[in-house]
Amino acid sequence: xxxxxxxxxxxxxxxxxxxxxxxxxxxxxxxxxxxxxxxxxxxxxxxxxxxxxxxxxxxxxxxxxxxxxxxxxxxxxxxxxxxxxxxxxxxxxxxxxxxxxxxxxxxxxxxxxxxxxxxxxxxxxxxxxxxxxxxxxxxxxxxxxxxxxxxxxxxxxxxxxxxxxxxxxxxxxxxxxxxxxxxxxxxxxxxxxxxxxxxxxxxxxxxxxxxxxxxxxxxxxxxxxxxxxxxxxxxxxxxxxxxxxxxxxxxxxxxxxxxxxxxxxxxxxxxxxxxxxxxxxxxxxxxxxxxxxxxxxxxxxxxxxxxxxxxxxxxxxxxxxxxxxxxxxxxxxxx
Length: 335
Ligand code: TRP
Description:
This protein is mainly alpha-helical. It has helices spanning 20-33, 46-50, 57-74, 90-99, 105-110, 112-120, 129-132, 134-143, 157-174, 214-222, 243-251, 255-267, 272-298, 301-329, and strands spanning 7-12, 39-44, 81-85, 149-151, 182-184. Residues 9-13, 43, 45, 48, 138, 141-142, 150, 152, 156 line the site of tryptophan.
C-alpha cells in the first residue's frame, strides 16, 4: 500500500445511547486513527436504523443527537473527523439502488450477521426488504467516500466482505471505480455483556452505557456474573468465563495487579465483592470524564447539530464527486 491514502469510515445506528461494546469495538479505534488517517468519516446511520424501526421515527430522530453527544464526548473531533447524517446524503441511496443489481437474494440471505439479527428479531419471511438489503446500503455508505479502512466490531465483518464483492462486480461491469476495503478490529472485537452473553447489546439488556451515572455502574457491576461455584471467600474461584475478570482484562490499566488477583482468586481467599469493587472503580474512571463532557455538550444541542450540519455538507461534496464518476462509468451521464 505505497502512499495510498488512508480513508477511514465507520458508522453507528442511532437506536440508543453508546455503550462499552461500541467503545472498545469501534470508537477507541476511530479516536486513535484521528492522528494517523488522511481522512475520516463518521456516519450516523439513520437510514439503516429505519430498516428495523420504520414505525418509530421519534426514536431514530432522538438518538441522532444522543449518539452524536456520546461520540463527541468520547473524543470524536470534528476538526479531524467528518461527522454526518446518512439520510442527508441522497447519493448513498442512489448508489444503493445500483448496487442492489450486483447482489443476489441468496447472497443476502447468507450474510451471517443479518441472519442472526433476523433470528433475534424473529422476522422469518416477513423480514422488511430494506433490512435484508442493509449490507448493500452499507457498502454504499463506505464506497461513496472511497473509504478503505473500516473500524467496526467483529459482527460487522460480513458487511465488509459483501462490500468487497460489490466492488469486484461493479468494477467488472463498469470499469475500475472502487477499491477493496479493509476491516479494522478493535483490541476487543466483541465485548461480552454484563450477564456473560456473548455480545453486549441493547436488545439483550446487558449494557453499561457511556452515560451511566456512577451508582448505575456500581449496580451493574454488582449484578455481574462471576463463578457460581465461588460461594465463600475462601473457596477457589474460576477466572475463565468470569465476566468481572474479562472486563478487568480489558479495562484495568494495571495488568500485573490483575494477574495477581487472578492467581489469588483461583487459589481461594479473594471475594467477589473485592474484584467487583475494583472493576466498578476502573469503569467509573473511564466513563466519568466521558459522561461529564457529554453533560456539557448536551447543554448546547444547537452547537452539536451545527457540527453535524457542517460534516454533512462536507460529506455531500465527496458523495457528489463519487456519483459523478459512477454515472460516467455506468454510462448514465446523459446531459
Ligand atoms: N451496521 C453498523 C452497526 O450496526 C452501522 C453502520 C452503518 C456502519 N453503515 C456503516 C459501520 C458503514 C461501518 C461502515 O453498528
